[in-house]
Specification:
Blueprint: E1 2-3, H1 8-15, H2 20-33, E2 38-45, E3 51-58, H3 68-72, H4 79-84, E4 107-118, E5 121-130, E6 136-139, E7 146-148, E8 153-161, H5 166-183, E9 190-193, E10 196-197, E11 204-209, E12 221-227, E13 237-241, E14 247-252, E15 263-269, H6 284-287, H7 296-330, H8 342-361, H9 371-387, H10 390-400, H11 405-445, H12 453-462, E16 471-475, H13 481-493, E17 512-517, E18 523-531, E19 537-538, H14 540-555, E20 565-572, E21 574-575, H15 580-587, E22 596-600, E23 605-611, H16 612-630, H17 644-649
Parallel strand pairs: 2-9, 13-15, 18-20, 19-21, 20-23
Antiparallel strand pairs: 1-6, 2-3, 3-8, 4-5, 4-8, 5-6, 5-7, 9-10, 11-12, 12-15, 13-14, 16-17, 17-18, 22-23
Helix pairs in contact: 2-5, 7-8, 8-9, 8-11, 11-16
Length: 670
């Protein structure tokens, strides 16, 4: 037995925080440090299905017996550390001289069986260690290695293990090595666990090729890979690769430590780097003989790559900001708005736009804050946006976030653009909504057009905001109840089901079916709208039709899960002469609700009847203040149309149009 130059104090200081999965990865790194291209991990199980032995085998150069004392006796004084002090490469990875001892974190014993080449011959021997005596090792029973007819490589066997899980081992290896395997994929570097290769493709968000051919003289193969996870202990880096696919140098990109989850690697391959001098401390005379960082070629290359990175990150952050806002809403950190009013909806959209733009420009404005501080920051943003005081907002952000000069300029530009673009967009939306109202008025009030129900329905299903800002359109184009239920289940659960309803009136067809959901996706109100062509007068027959809809719905349990409201609207131009509807309205006047003619289930199910003139009047009451303040041009109200079709077509695709139905109507019977 030979002794390692180590004291108990050294073990306690250097190895106390080693974790089992990290230790296993250390032995994989040791294989690649030994010039291996393949490392195979085998997890041996006993009869109970528990892992009772692990082997890590590589096809590297092995451990020369005559160098053994330099590899196993010194502790915390690795030759690899000395190499790393002079280079900036991914290999050699180990640098503390302790990797060979980390087995104690998950195993009682470790045995190395290694084959190395010396003077064109191969020799084999073993080394073994025990957790209880880390300062001693057995080197082949102190016998010289024996000659063998086998390829070089090393296999380490670990026995008497701590409890380990295969899925956790595989995931840890993926997390540790995915960027390294991508770096060396042209060299066919691979890691196997029980003969299955490690596949890290699910870590890739996207791959982009960067073309610099119009700016650089040399040929380059450049790919940017965006990852969906942190790169372990590795930063986001640029890797410079020679024509032989070997890594020449690596350095961090300029987009690290931005608190934005933009994990990325840039791999640049070119013969330009075969003899490139990266280090800045080399002698000027020597550097001048080889390509180096002072070359205009290199400066142009890096400027182009960095510009591409910045633009790609900005695009990513714009998409990520939407998810971030949704997360804040779900966690009840985001300010609440009255989504039943157009002002509340647009106040939220304005804040969404500002928060999203600020997040894209500088995520650390929000990340890293406690939930309470996020709430305070968001409320300040809302308050200042309501007051329109951009300079005040800019000053606050300067105080709470440490931004450099370039970032402050970007933020200043963002605030100016955000304010102007949102005002313009809001004005256009209000104008387009007013155009829709005017078009609908023309369709329902111009008798000479002889408008059909289809004209009215097409306008309403594209602009269902006139019934409230908070709804999602589930079905349109006269859905029957099976299609409506299919849409409800898909919207709330995300599952497409074949639906069968047992009711004699199941094939009755509604005009519009919408629902309102709270922030957690739960249905709080279902809305059915029955539209009548302008020439049809509303009376008992039309109300009876709506009640049939109600009875079908109330008979189907899946339409009524939980404490859910059902609201039915019957809408037409005028009432018939029977005075049936007037009587129903009068009998429900006690409720204090306008237009109500039927209520049951303790107010959870209600039917309302409205004339189009009343719909337009309600809309005007909600919007007149804004219209007057914006002083919109009167030409919107004076728009003339030649036919009902022309009136409908003029506003179908303007900015006021809302998302299409979740479940479109099938022409064939489903």
């Amino acid at each position: 037995m030979k002794s390692v130059l180590i004291t108990p104090e050294g073990i306690q200081k250097n190895l106390k925080n080693i974790k089992p999965l990290d230790a296993i990865c250390e032995y994989i790194w040791n294989g690649f440090d030994a010039e291996a291209t393949e490392v195979k991990i085998n997890l041996h199980e006993n009869a109970l299905g528990l892992i009772n032995m692990i082997t890590v085998e590589d096809n590297g150069i092995g451990i020369n017996y005559d160098e053994l004392k330099f590899k196993f006796q010194p502790f915390n004084d690795s030759k690899k550390a000395n190499m790393l002090s002079r280079t900036n490469h991914s290999l050699p990875h180990g640098q503390k001289g302790i990797g060979r001892l980390t087995f104690f974190a998950f195993s009682q014993t470790a045995r190395w069986e290694t084959i190395y080449e010396y003077e064109k011959k191969h020799y084999s021997y073993y080394i073994s260690m025990n957790k209880d005596s880390l300062n001693q090792y057995d080197d082949n029973g102190e016998q010289r290695p024996s000659e063998v007819q086998m390829n070089s490589g090393t296999k380490v066997t670990f026995t008497q293990l701590e409890s380990l899980d295969k899925k956790e081992i595989v995931h840890k290896i993926k997390e540790e090595f995915f960027w390294f395997l991508e770096l060396n994929k042209e060299n066919d570097y691979r890691i196997f666990v029980d003969d299955a290769p490690i596949d890290y493709s699910d870590f890739i968000v996207e791959t982009q090729n960067i073309d610099v051919s119009d700016k650089c003289k040399n040929k380059y193969e450049i790919r940017l890979i965006q990852w969906n996870t942190k790169l372990g202990n590795e930063y986001s880096r640029i890797y410079y690769i020679g024509s032989d696919n070997k890594e020449r140098y690596k350095e961090t990109t300029k987009l690290n430590k931005r608190a934005d989850q933009f994990f990325h690697s840039v791999y640049i391959k070119s013969n330009y780097f075969d003899d490139f001098h990266f280090a800045n401390d080399e002698m000027e005379g020597q550097r001048a003989l080889f390509p180096n960082r002072s070359d205009m070629e290199y400066k142009t290359l890096m400027e182009t790559v960095n510009d591409f990175l910045v633009k790609h990150r900005r695009k990513y952050l714009k998409e990520a900001s939407d998810n971030y806002i949704a997360q804040l809403v779900d966690e009840r950190i985001y300010p609440e708005f009255d989504t039943q009013s157009i002002m509340g909806v647009h106040q939220k959209r304005e804040l969404d736009s500002l928060v999203g733009t600020l997040y894209a420009a500088q995520p650390k404005i929000f990340t890293g804050l406690s939930d309470d501080n996020k709430k305070i920051t968001l409320q300040l943003l809302k308050l200042i946006m309501d007051n329109g005081n951009k300079p005040e907002l800019f000053n606050i952000l300067q105080e709470i976030v440490d931004l450099d000069q370039e970032e402050m300029k970007e933020l200043s530009d963002v605030l100016q653009y955000t304010s102007l673009s949102n005002i313009t967009r809001t004005i256009k939306l209000l104008c387009d909504r007013q155009k829709v109202i005017q078009s609908l008025k023309t369709v329902v009030f111009t008798k000479s057009f002889n408008s059909y129900e289809a004209h009215v329905q097409k306008l309403v299903e594209n602009h269902y905001w006139m019934f409230g800002e908070q709804y999602n359109l589930i079905t349109s184009a006269e859905p029957d109840f099976e299609l409506a239920l299919k849409g409800l289940i898909f919207k709330t659960v995300g599952v497409q089901e074949d639906i069968n309803i047992e009711h004699p009136d199941k094939n009755k067809e509604m005009d519009i079916y919408m629902l309102r959901q709270d922030r957690h996706g739960k249905v709080t109100e279902n809305v059915v709208v029955e539209l009548k062509r302008p020439s049809v007068k509303l009376g008992e027959e039309e109300v009876s039709q709506v009640k049939k809809y109600m009875r079908v719905i109330l008979s189907e349990p899946r339409f009524n899960a939980g404490n859910v409201k059902w609201t039915f609207y019957l809408i037409g131009n005028e009432y018939d002469k029977s005075h049936f509807i007037e009587g129903e309205l009068e009998s429900h006047a006690y409720s204090g609700e306008e237009h109500l003619i039927h209520s049951q289930d303790k107010g959870l199910t209600k039917i309302y009847v409205l004339k189009w003139s009343e719909v337009f009047d309600d809309y005007a009451k909600r919007h007149n203040f804004l219209m007057e303040r914006l002083n919109l041009e009167q030409k919107i109200w004076l728009e003339k149309y030649e036919s009902a079709d022309a009136a409908v077509d003029s506003v179908l695709e303007n900015s006021a149009k809302l998302p299409d139905a979740v479940i479109p109507k099938n022409k064939e019977r489903h």
